[in-house]
Hints:
This protein has 389 residues and is an alpha/beta fold. It has three domains: 7-104, DNA Polymerase, Chain A, domain 1 (2-Layer Sandwich), CATH 3.30.342; 115-175, CATH 2.40.50.730; 181-384, Nucleotidyltransferase, domain 5. The chain contains nine helices and 16 strands. It has helices spanning 24-35, 75-83, 107-114, 244-258, 268-282, 330-337, 345-353, 365-369, 373-384; strands at residues 2-5, 10-14, 42-50, 62-69, 135-136, 143-144, 158-161, 166-167, 181-189, 204-213, 221-227, 237-241, 262-265, 302-309, 313-320, 326-329. The longest helix is centred in the middle third of the chain and has 15 residues, at 244-258.
Amino acid sequence: MCHVTGFLPYFYIPAPIGFQNGHLNSFTQALERTVSRGQPVIDHVEIAMRENLWGYNGNQKTPFLKIVLNDPKNVARVRSAFEQGDVQFLDMFTNGPSLTFESNIQFLLRFMIDTDVFSVFPLVSNVQIVGMNWVELPAGKYHIRHGASKISNCQIECQIPYKDIISHAPVGEWAKIAPLRILSFDIECAGRPGIFPEASVDPVIQIANVVTTYGSTKPFVRNVFTIDTCSQIVGAQVIEHTTQESLLLAWKDFVLQVDPDVLIGYNIANFDLPYLIDRAHACKLDEKFPYLGRIPRNKSAVKSTSFSSKAFGQRDSKETSMDGRLQLDMLQVMQRDYKLRSYSLNAVCSQFLNEQKEDVHHSIITELHNGTAESRRRLAVYCLKVSPL
């Protein structure tokens, strides 16, 4: 986790005729009085020469006022003050609303765009930060956070001024994908006959996990968390639990210890992850279980969302917040990119991998769980065989 400091939100307004550097301090104070609600809002104001892209002006630069704020959440309020004509300063701002420029650019996007302005070393040209490209923190330019100043459970947490970051274009060596740690998982629930499992009633009886590093052909973790006894499985660790609460908390601790960058599975967005969180709530584990991300104080929560599909248009879905961990639901990928007769895991595996997940019909899952250690092993093998999509 990297805390990037020193970058502030800003936008522009045309400088009034006759505005000089000597006006800056008194103008800043007048603006602060207009927009402040008890807390400072304006960091500073400066004069900047910029070209207005509206109409033709012979590519001439004219003076603008760069309004620099101390917090992104204040941008809308200050912008509205200018656009509604609320800012008064001498006779320069008494003629009604003022246009604002670049005031609707999202703060994160503004940060990514502006990272191409600085060159830290001679002959080294920075490029814009884009999604998933490499950034470099030069030695001596950052410091590591320890103790109370550390807010995450990341392995490394550091801080650096934004001007010291070097962004690398994704070419050559810098085009390689990081060795991301990927957790693929699947859960099984003991539902009631003829009723789709409900987290408020039906327990999670098994959670199977496969952990790999991107670029590696073999996983370095294969295990199954199970309630009750289960016969051993070659090449996998079987972790037995006696209660639902014990299983859920042990799996949460496992996720934190493995520290995956990516969670992947089939229908995990609409079923597995929401079910685990709702089941923990039903078991009164709200203060222990949902902290699955890399910010220990932030609970994971489920919210409704939607995604676009070529075959089906806009589709309702769910999203689970999990700080610092990407979630990839292969069912959504299939529905988005392919029009198939069936999106069952067996059908998809057969279509793309020429293989099938071991066939255990959902109607016998509870029966297998209530049987013997050997029948639970059959269920665990089924749960563990997560397709490597």
